[in-house]
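User: I'm writing a short report section on ligand binding and want a predicted complex to refer to. Could you take this sequence and zinc ion and write out the structure as tokens? A short remark afterwards would be nice.
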Amino acid sequence: MTRPQSRARRQSAFMEEAKRMYDQMEDWYDTHPQASFGEIEAEARKRRRELMGKVLAELVNGRDAGTQVELPKCKQCGQKMKFEGYRDWSIHGLEGDSTLERAYYICPNCKGETIFPPRRKAKPAGRSLE
Ligand SMILES: [Zn+2]
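Assistant: Sure. The structure tokens for the complex follow:
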């Protein structure tokens, strides 16, 4: 799982994933030396989905997991909510499957009253994920 981290760290995580994918392709080609270009492509496509899923999770989780500097207030009673941890959120995207994570808060007063704060509004020229 990824927690918010610097752009340089996110980029380095991406480079690691890309290297891993390339190495896997090299290993696969070693064991399939007669593979046609189409077969190599089919193998790459599978791995690309895995890579993209991880990269998108890195990109999104590494920026913002919904953690609030100030504790959010309960909609029911107005009391400050308690940070409980992170919950996974699986997304089956067009480019790959990603596991995003969201900060999770619970009201100590009203049991069961929980919130997942929405993502920050996108920066100019960006767009919201939700
Ligand atoms: Zn409450």
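A remark for your report: Strands lie at 82-92, 97-106, 114-115. Confidence is low (pLDDT under 50) at residues 121-130.
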